[in-house]
Amino acid sequence: MTLELRGITKRFGALVANDHIDLRVEAGSIHCLLGENGAGKSTLMNVLYGLYQADEGEIVLDGVVQDFAGPGDARRAGIGMVHQHFMLVPVFTVAENVMLGHEQTGFAGRLDLAAARAKVREISERFGFDIDPDAVVEDLPVGVQQRVEIIKALSQRAKVLVFDEPTAVLTPQETDELMAIMEQLKAEGTAIVFITHKLREVRRVADTITVIRLGKVVGQAEPTATNAELATQMVGRAVELTVQKAPATPGAPALVVENLTVVDDNGLKVVNDVSFTVHEGEILAIAGVQGNGQTELTEALIGLQSAAEGRVSLGGRELTGLTVRQALDEGIGFVPEDRTHDGLVGEFTIAENLMLDRSTGAPFVRAGSVQYGVLNAFAEEKKAEFDIRAASIQTAAGRLSGGNQQKVVLARELSRDLKLFVAAQPTRGIDVGSIEFVHKRMVATRDAGVPVIVVSTELDEVAALADRIAVMYRGEIVGIVPGTTSRDTLGLMMAGERPEGIVE
């Protein structure tokens, strides 16, 4: 089946998310949509899948114009979509999830689960998935859950399959397996649209690359193009993709974590007996698939989570049991993984967000009153220093792009005298240009002698920044290895294996 999008335009109020986009995807090919976050890629695919209605333009399948009132119409026309955030019911079995929305019934109107199980087995055998139809989805690893999403789409005989940022939660090995599955689907004649901003993946599988910037198609690229060429098309300027940093010169031990255990509301150990040390002037990256205790670990360092056991000290001063306010006052800078919920107050201005850590005293508050002259001068200085792109410092933070929101958080946290800097997913959801800036600031912080902890699920980022790497799996540290450790070894560790030769 050949897919054509002709002049697709989608507006949200004054914002034009898609601006007269043309796209053609041939049967038996992989067409990559490449662009920054917020470029309009997912919006375009949501129009194709019937989740949004286009304001202008048309969808054409094998020469026939389509009119999708919703996802059901798109599925019946042969379009399937594997979403970035899985659309699965955790407590249902694989078979129940696959039949959900198009249930077959047998005698007396009873659900025909046997037919759903047979469909799961048939597709699993075809692609070598090895999935039990009766397995409960919440008990499956994320890589297997993604295969369930693919089975769901294929069970409806999808001839056009959209993968929306499919590798965000996968280990490197699971990513390789997904690439192989896409190649197999392509060989069977499926037209595949692959949405991503990861240049390595694009160059590996793409037959055709369309680059979208600010809602418009800005050009086509060849899979043979270099990462630098692709990044330039995405952002509109040359981007330095390699982090330039001298070898670390670690100083004295600074942060010491000993036998730290954190228990969740259900009594489960989400951080289990974790110990490590971070020295002055080094970056320790904590790698792992999302959901293996990294979030709880960083929150325990700042006082957002309570330690059930163990202790944490910084420069010899005990941190265990401190409130968040007290931890900040000890000199910890903290970039949370969700900037919109935990890092910013969207209704506050840029200037107001820049004083959140210091809202009770000098230099911004005196005798209970905000010193707006001092605050505004500070905010203007940081706006320029961190290249925060906004009309003014009075712009509400919620109106900024993701990259500029992250710069506000970084400007606030890095503008204090720090004894420790902790950054969780520091470049999640931001474009390659902003990533370049964030990485430079983090290296500069290390070079100033501050110990830095970076938590990231992106192995390219871990490899670029880390002096040492701690890999977490199911709440425990599998091992701590040099920053030069190979992706293959890290991938095995992220899956819970402990390769030979790891002694830490």
From TrEMBL:
Domain ABC transporter: residue ranges: 3-239, 255-499
Entry keyword Transport: yes
InterPro entries: AAA+_ATPase, ABC_carbohydrate_import_ATPase, ABC_transporter-like_ATP-bd, ABC_transporter-like_CS, P-loop_NTPase
Intracellular or extracellular location(s): Cell membrane
Superkingdom field: Bacteria
Any single Pfam family the record assigns to this protein: ABC_tran
Designated name of the protein: ABC transporter ATP-binding protein
Annotated keywords: ATP-binding, Cell membrane, Membrane, Nucleotide-binding, Repeat, Translocase, Transport
Major location category of this protein: membrane
GO-annotated molecular function: ATP binding; ATP hydrolysis activity
Entry keyword annotation includes Nucleotide-binding: yes
Originating species: Mycetocola reblochoni
SMART domains according to UniProt: AAA
GO cellular component terms listed in the entry, alphabetical order: plasma membrane
Membrane topology summary: Peripheral membrane protein
